[in-house]
Design goal:
single chain, mainly alpha, 2 helices, 54% helix
């Protein structure tokens, strides 16, 4: 319920009309740097590279088996 639901006498200063649309909240402070966070990022990167490497090797083996 806002002020316009009943007899509003604020005129041009009505907060419903003055309110900005799409107002963004400020972001939170970034997390402090941590050695563990960097290690987890590096681990995730190398795990992704390993999985992609295994998929690539499986593709190559399948192609080699198809050719022979």
């Amino acid at each position: 319920m806002n002020c316009c639901d009943y007899e509003c006498n604020q005129g041009r200063d009505c907060p419903v009309r003055v309110a900005r649309i799409g107002q963004r909240m400020k972001s939170a402070d970034p997390l402090p740097p941590s050695i563990w966070r960097e290690q987890i990022k590096r681990l995730g990167y190398w795990m992704l590279m390993g999985i992609l490497g295994m998929l690539w090797m499986a593709f190559l083996v399948a192609c080699a088996a198809y050719v022979n």
